[in-house]
Amino acid sequence: MKAVDELKGRGIITDPVVAQLGDGGYEPANLDAAAYYAPEDFVRLIGEARMVIAHAGMGTIIEALNQHKPVVVVPRKATLGEANTDHQFDTAKQLEAEGKVLVAYEVDDLPDMLQQAESFVVPGCAVSPELLDSVGTFIEAVRKQRYG
Length: 148
Description:
Helices cover 44% and strands 9% of the residues.
């Protein structure tokens, strides 16, 4: 969140940025942000976006892909205390290998990935959105159970 906030503040990101902060405690200076959005607002905001920047949480990624929005994933790191394990790197690598998302493995990679997202073509989805939603819900439930 801090990296996106700084890029916005420096004028590297020129579009308006709407952020869901969660419980991280960071208060951005340059973003329109809320701790959480109601599900219907979250879906609407993704629909209004040109692209989505997200950690490797499946709910956000699935919704963005369902709406054919380019996604730049910045996986959370255990070494920075952002997650208990580096499981988000595995998710990001798999989705990147499938050509579904762009990944900034380091925050310094973010400007380049945002530039690539400008012309990134989101692949069509061969499965129903309902199935993707169910799988995403299941994955998030398992993740919360295992990692908190």
